[in-house]
Amino acid sequence: MDGHTADDLVIVDRSAGVVFAGGVAFRERVPTTPHADLKRWLASLDHLQGLLRDSGARLLIPSHGPALGSAEAIAQTRGYLQWLDARMTQAASQGRDLAEVIAMPVPDAYAHWGAMPAEYLRNVTHLYPAYEDAAFRR
Fold it and tell me: Distance between CA 131 and CA 20 in Å, rounded?
């Protein structure tokens, strides 16, 4: 799969009912995005959700965070990436600069996650310039 990086390895152990999600899924931890393509990552999460369902796996081991249940890490990662994309799209369309986006409060749902605020700051710092550029070109 891809999206988190250009090549994300996912392993399915059908006999054990376990999916090792590699860097595609995070649980209760801010996803790292230095090599990310958010749209491809979201597509990989959809693919991973189908793979999990079709394999009958009982457990998904995320890249970071506890391995509890199966699909929660997928839902958490998807939710965060969608929120991050929407936040940066809206901020860029409003003409906000990087410092303003960094200073915006993070929703409670993500505020307690591991690597917060450092990883969120890293996410915004390297992704936001592309959102500003896209908004400027419109």
Answer: 32
Gap between the Cα atoms of 109 and 28, Å rounded: 9
Spans of all domains in the chain: 11-137
pLDDT of res. 67: 86
Total count of residues recorded for the chain: 138
Q: Model's pTM, two decimal places?
A: 0.95
Closest by CA position to 101, among listed 89, 113, 119, 116: 89
Q: Contact at 8 Å (CB) between 63 and 27?
A: no
The answer to whether the CB of 19 falls within 8 A of the CB of 51 is: yes
Q: What is the dihedral of CA 63, 80, 125, 129, to 10 degrees?
A: 120
Q: What is the mean pLDDT of the chain?
A: 95
**Residues 19 and 52 sit within 8 Å (Cβ to Cβ):** yes
CB contact at 8 A, 36 and 77: no
| Digit-coded pLDDT (tens) for 1-16 | 999 999 999 999 999 9
